[in-house]
Amino acid sequence: MPTTPLPTLTPGDFTSDQQARWCPGCGDFSILAQMKIVLADLGVPRANLAFIAGPGCAGRLPHYLNTFGFHGSLGRAPALATGLRLANENVQVWIVTGDGDALSAGTNHLVHALRRNVDLKIILINNEVFGLSKGQASPTSRPGTRTKTSPEGSFETPLRPLSLALAAEASFVARTIDVDVNHMSEMLERAAAHRGTALVEIYQNCKIFNDGVFEYATDTTLKADSLIYLEHGRPLLFGKDRNQGLRLNGFEPEVVTLGHGITIDDVLIHDEKAAEPTLAFLLSRLIGPAFPECLGVFRSVQRPTFEQSLDESRQARPTRDLESLLTGDESWLVA
Amino acid sequence: MMAVVPSSSGPTPSARAKIEDLAAAVVRFAGDASDGMQLVGAQFTSGSASHGNAVFTLPDLPAEIRAPAGTLAGACGFQVHVSSQPIHTPGDVLHTLVVMNPASLRANLNDLEPGGILIANADAFTPDELAKAGYRSNPLQDGSLGAYRLLAATMTQFSLAAVAPVNLIPREANRCKDFFPLGIVCWLYDRPLEPTLKWIRETYVKNPAMIEANTRTLKAGYHYGEMSGQLPTRYRIAKAALPAGRYRSVTGIESLALGIAAAAEQSPRPLIFAGFPAPPASELLHELFDKPHANVKVVQAEDDSAALNLAIGAAFGGALGATATSGPGLVLQSEALGLAVMSELPCIVIDVQRAGPSNGMPTKTEQADLLQALFGRNGESPLIVLAPATPADGFAIVLEAVRLAVRSMSPVIILSDVHLANSAEAWRVPSVAEVPAIDMAQALQGELLSRDERGVRPWAIPGTPGLEHRTGGLEKDARTGNVSYEALNHEQMVRLRAAKIASLADEIAPLETHGPISSDLLVVGWGSTFGAIRDAVTRCQAKGLRVAHAHVRHLHPLPSNTGAVLKRYRKILVPELNAGQLCRLLRAEYLVDAMSLSKVQGQPFLVSEIAQKIEAMLAP
Ligand code: SF4
Q: B-chain residues within 8 Å CB-CB of A76?
């Protein structure tokens, strides 16, 4: 990275010459806008940023950013990004992916990037439906979701992306939502600052094929009772009056209302740095209407990146110069 | 059987056995996986090579990692062709067969020439072992081997007697028996023991007892050959006339690994090699991990698709990306190959072909991925396809692949196969200064959106201010590089991608012919069939037949003189280990009446199979 002071960048400096072509009202517009704001504040030159994507509505995002960008095959972005990081460690690498890309074809590669802890920032835009291919069920579609491939309502059990990521040993896992731009910015900044694979799930409204699926989290009258904003070291409280909390009953979570003998001391305290991801996993499985859903950083721990570990293991084994390799261990002279 | 007192003194020249000169010999050592025949064969090879012979080897490995001992499935062997002339194959028929048990006798006897020498470990021919191999009576005693010259020795007993004075635990003592048959064969072909003795001293430097014991067993075998009197004739194979220099043995896998190291040496960024363990390509992954070069980063990917995507990501980042695969792995990589074509990024895919389709026969050889390599992707997606002709040629072919990949910003497929991967030949070690240079700097020059006179775009690398751009698998506008679904633009881009590959035809070596430049018959091959074709054509030429051999190393694009060469011959024969894929291509491309000689048995061609076909085609 250059050491001379950087010219200050504005969000507008990250606009490419391509007109964004999502449907009017699509949540992706807001994600693109916040991304530019966050990038402008990062202080990383445009030339040292790369956005990797796959097919899908989410995958269009890199085309609208004036950085390096690569649009690969369905689900393969984590593998492409890993290769890029190994080749060129001066580049900060982001992946922009959707539930169809990352969790249908790409689950395998996503899991391996997470367990390896490659230094990548993954934005998983989850709208619980295939958009660009025109409205089919996705691996995250809720039961009952009506699509072209589930005309009577989806009957498959959906994947929970953050539970999957935690099970794959992710070192940074967060969730935010397209309409809460301040929270989204904060999560993107946190991801940018993390060393290792950072996964941020963004609940995104697909206006055309799954409109309103996150209404409980966006409607001003509903969201206070439907969402917990995770804060490290703070109790897991929610509700308009912040008088409801989450506590553990054995291994089961339960919602309690403060008062009548229940105090704040009964409520779980959020610890994003816990060595074991057990509680983070529990929080990642909470879904409405029985439970509030969590937004914020579920887990943020430090462990060596893949790049570091690979270099260390390479240093542990003596390399050989070309002459020694060519000659091999056994050779003979012919006069 | 006469008793022989093993001696630890050096061998003395035979008083009784007479010595005959021989031009070449093929020897196969066969036994259970635990019998160490690979090691013994390798020792006989290096001993012969340092003696000045031309050598070519082929280990025949069983498919199972640990097949049950004594069964046919567990039989494994190592074949060595030793010659006073240049040779290109491991040899068709055996002059000598060494068998360590009945199963290996049954599995290998068919390949021994009539009157050939059979050396057997009589100790292993017990009722149990005979039954496992399906023998009702002991062939060493029932006269059924009368067509061969038999030397049966109780090798286990002799070697145990030889090591008795050395204090060894029984397991170690048993292991030493492998050197007994090696001693016999060294005696038989008048090979010096010193190279093997030196190897024993170096290998067991920390275990003097094993040095002593193995030395004794080796010498005991040598003396046994002499003293037993079972074989009245010994053979001497004169030195071959080889160019002076330092030589080593190199397998088709090792040469590829050396090519990768030599390419990385010249690369400003690390070469990223990602591989998934698909046998036999996994051998290359092991080799690169085992003998690391400072500028090669090796990664085990989660599958073959990830492996090539990693390589493409690396290429996007400005590094050389490479991978190797076998069998269905290449199918998994078709998608990413199309991506590399579309995004115009240089990367190398090494396909060590094995018998298919699907998982087929993972340890058996075939050349049936050619048309897939050329055409097996969605859309018009031309790329560069090369094939090494011999085990050692992998070195030059990787460097050529990297040169062409960078020259045209294109993926390259290298088609090796199981036969090349496993065989080894002697290779004159080049000095570092002799390694062909690759001009990588040239690819890095040029403005974004500029193309050179051949239509090649510059390598615009992340981290370089001003070169920010978006690329990938979608069609791009020829002028702006932005995504475009315009009808005429697509046609222009399809033709541009094809033309920049096609124009390489003028930048590669022309197709050469061995033999008359115009005559009755041209035998055209590619890949691992080189040795069998060359030896067959040479043999037929010696008989006065007007036949020539041309071997294609650049399969796409083909050298620009290919059509002209083909048209100088009355007939064309294309031997291939597939159902006639190159033959079909040559017919389609050049309207010549090429004829296919096809073999799909998981085995390489025998020289005789090709020679017979040539003779039949040229019969008056
Ligand atoms: S289909 Fe849905 S996700 Fe895609 S652009 Fe339209 S609204 Fe957005």
A: 305-306, 309, 335-336, 339
